[in-house]
């Protein structure tokens, strides 16, 4: 498992050495949780995300894009408890995120539309524990979360600058956490703006 993590990170940084466009992306993340048996933290939270990356191996109709960034997963709910009535709870976890996508592009003058898909890994920073008073003793998050990212966007080149808008969805392979009785899953959506510089 460690070799796989190191291989992914090495691929990202080796790709950056040959990058054609270096970019910074920032935007908002919408995240919620669920399990395979009960509803927990199923209302979305909104948070800020920041990524740096590179677009490379640029051809007429496709290119590769790799990114590393900082993002948040979690959710919130109104929990019913026996003493004191319902309470609002929220849990969030910070992750370092890495991905590489294959983007197919459709060129329109100096702009292009693109759709992309590729592998991703999220590495949990900090505690794996839930922080709220309802689930703290029963649930725990996984340190690593593997999956893929699907994206749709548009980019425009202005001289050596590249401006873009990107919507993406993170699909996890399996659960992101668990208790003794059920698995925890996550839904994460991103909307990001980017600015890049073509080398």
Brief write-up:
Helices cover 8% and strands 65% of the residues.
Defining traits:
single chain; 199 residues; mainly beta; Porin; eight-stranded antiparallel beta barrel; 1 helix; 8% helix; 65% strand; elongated
Structure write-up:
The chain is mainly beta. The chain has a single domain, classed as Porin, CATH 2.40.160.20. The protein is 8% helix and 65% strand. It has one helix spanning 2-17, and strands spanning 21-35, 45-56, 62-79, 87-108, 111-125, 140-141, 144-158, 161-172, 177-178, 183-198. An 8-stranded antiparallel β-barrel has the order 1-2-3-4-5-7-8-10. A hairpin with a 5-residue loop joins β2 (45-56) and β3. It is elongated.
Largest sheet: 8 strands, antiparallel, barrel
**Approximate strand percentage:** over 45%
Domain count: the total is 1
Question: pLDDT under 50 segments (min length 5)?
Answer: none
The radius of gyration is 19 Å
User: What order do the helices and strands follow?
Assistant: HEEEEEEEEEE
């Amino acid at each position: 498992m460690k070799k796989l993590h190191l291989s992914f990170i090495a691929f990202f940084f080796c790709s950056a050495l040959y990058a054609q466009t270096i970019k910074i992306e920032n935007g908002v993340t919408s995240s919620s949780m669920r399990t395979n048996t009960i509803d927990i933290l199923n209302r979305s939270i909104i948070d800020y995300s920041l990524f740096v990356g590179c677009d490379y191996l640029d051809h007429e109709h496709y290119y590769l894009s790799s990114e590393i960034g900082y993002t948040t997963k979690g959710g919130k709910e109104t929990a019913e408890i026996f003493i004191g009535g319902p309470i609002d709870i929220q849990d969030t976890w910070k992750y370092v995120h890495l991905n590489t996508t294959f983007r197919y592009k459709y060129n329109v003058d100096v702009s292009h539309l693109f759709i992309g898909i590729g592998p991703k890994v999220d590495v949990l920073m900090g505690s794996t524990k839930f922080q709220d008073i309802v689930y703290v003793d029963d649930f725990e998050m996984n340190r690593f979360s593997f999956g893929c990212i699907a994206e749709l966007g548009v980019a425009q080149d202005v001289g050596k600058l590249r401006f873009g808008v990107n919507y993406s969805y993170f699909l996890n392979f399996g659960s992101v956490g668990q208790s003794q009785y059920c698995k925890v899953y996550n839904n994460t959506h991103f909307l990001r703006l980017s600015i890049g510089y073509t080398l």
